[in-house]
Amino acid sequence: MDDQYRSKSEQGVSEVSLRTQRAEKLDSLGRMAGGIAHDFNNLLLAIMGNADLLDQDLKAGRDGQALLDEIRKATGRAADLCNQLFAFAGQGRFHLTPLAISSISREMAPMLRVAVSRNVTLRLDLIDDLPLIEADPAQIHQIIMNLVVNASESLGSAGGVITLATGSGPLMTADRQECVLGEAGVGSDYVYLEVSDTGEGMDEQTLQRIFDPFFTTKIQGRGLGLASVLGIVRGHQALLCVRSRKGEGSRFRVHFPAASVGVPEADRFPPRVSATRSGSATILVVDDEEYLRVLCQRMLSRLGYDVLVAAGGRQALEIYRAEHERIDCVILDLVMPEMDGLAVFRQLVAMNPEVEVILTSGYHEQEISTRFAGEGIRGFLQKPYVVADLAEVLDRVDRDRVSDHPQAAPDQES
After folding, report:
1. What residues pair up with 121 in beta bridges, in sequence order?
2. Does the pLDDT value for residue 266 go beyond 50?
3. Cross-strand pairs, 330
4. What's the pLDDT at 269?
5. Rounded distance, CA 232 to CA 230, Å?
6. Potential cystine with 154: which of 199, 316, 331, 345 (Cβ 3.0-4.6 Å)?
7. Is 276 exposed, middle or buried (0-12, 13-18, 19+ CB in 10 A)?
8. In the predicted model, what is the mean pLDDT of the chain?
9. Reduced to 3 states, what is the DSSP secondary structure of residue 231?
10. How many Å apart are CA 249 and CA 50, to the nearest integer?
């Protein structure tokens, strides 16, 4: 009888725990949605307000350059916010390159000392001659800055010491127990980046929520913060370990796999080159969003290209089937309803193995190049983009065509 009662009791506790976890997840998602909506709403106000003023100035014959600059700034900040969201999802724009973690940490020291409070001392404990890691420099900068600023804010008015340290070696047992993300490979060597502070530390309840988007223990302060750090770490296949106890401060340690070689060039799209000429060819633009089709069409027209447009994959295939002899290149959106970019691309290749396709997407180039490795994609255009970006990728595709088929190049007069 007692065992039966205990079993029912334990089941009840388990159900309550699951309901609590679901409620916390919903609360986290609600906070994230509200925070993103707040930030985007402010950016939309800057864009719409300045665009309205610009419209009035242009009609009145006044110079609108200052307003145009403000619109560009706001859209740039919106793109940065999108990058943070991609980082949170582990899908940030990563451009991997061999890095010396101690060197990049040392270079950031002056900036970090300005970012922390005046009553905080920043100490460096950096070991040189560590193995290299394969990482995106901009994303490593963001990890270091976010962790150091978070430590500074945790110290508050009392002040204290923040230590930025680096090291290497296999993962210790204690580190394994403190990992909040990732699993260590057996016998794997890691290069670590560590930020520790002499603050009050965190209780277990706070520790469980520090990576929730827009979670904060401060009256002021919002943003993805440590959530974006988690996403960047995930995107680099690294590990994140956290140690914090009340009265003992906190320590965040990121373990990166040591790099044996640089990133293989075969796994990347060829680097961009500067655009040197405009087009005189016909390009098919495929995107399910009308305003993006119109925008791309206008950009291409400015560059001198003839443009055909398709509102989706099936229409694109119909147009290409009818007009393939005059279509020189296809700019293809990756994410579309009914028929996505990959399915469209493969059917285009079935029609014409020599078809030249440039993929466009909000995903980062590293993920696209890995996903489409060996498929024959000629180029990639990252959203958002401007006319210069479009011109560069088209120019590179044109140069690659001449390189692959020298006979197609115009004969040189002797």
Report:
1. 161
2. no
3. 284, 357
4. 37
5. 6
6. 199
7. exposed
8. 77
9. helix
10. 46
Rg (CA), the chain: 26
Contact of 94 with 364, CB cutoff 8 Å = yes
3-class state of residue 411 by DSSP: coil
Segment 222-237, tens digit of pLDDT: 445 677 788 788 878 8
Domain covering 97-263 assigned CATH 3.30.565.10 in the classification: yes
Residues 6+ apart with CB under 8 A from 192: 166, 167, 168, 253, 254, 255, 256
Q: Which residue has the tokens 């403000």?
A: 70
pLDDT band at 414 (very low <50, low <70, confident <90, very high): very low
Instruction: Flag whether the pTM goes above 0.85.
Output: no
User: How many whole angstroms from its chain centre is CA 177?
Assistant: 29
The rounded distance, in Å, linking the Cα atoms of 347 and 351 is: 6
Condensed to tens digits (0 to 9), the pLDDT of residues 293-318 reads 888 998 999 899 999 999 999 999 99
**Cα separations (Å) of 209 from 23, 142, 162, 309?**
13, 20, 22, 47
142-151, 201-210, 395-404: range with highest mean pLDDT: 142-151
What is the residue extent of each domain of the chain? 2-88, 97-263, 266-408
In whole angstroms, what is the distance from residue 98 CA to residue 109 CA? Answer: 20
Q: Can you give the pLDDT at residue 412?
A: 43
CA distances from 70 to 62, 261, 383, 384 (A): 16, 43, 20, 17
Q: Are 166 and 132 in contact (CB under 8 A)?
A: no
What architecture is domain 266-408?
A: 3-Layer(aba) Sandwich (3.40)
Distance CA 316, CA 329 (A): 12
Give 176-208 pLDDT, tens digit per residue: 667 766 666 544 688 999 999 998 888 776 666
Structure tokens at 17: 């725990």
Cα 208 to Cα 144, 205, 217: the distances in Å are 21, 5, 13
Tokens of 188: 């794997």
CA 29 – CA 36 distance, rounded (Å): 10
CA distances from 315 to 203, 234, 285, 312, 323 (A): 57, 38, 11, 6, 12
Are the CB atoms for 193 and 166 separated by under 8 Å? Answer: yes
Structure confidence at residue 222 (pLDDT): 46
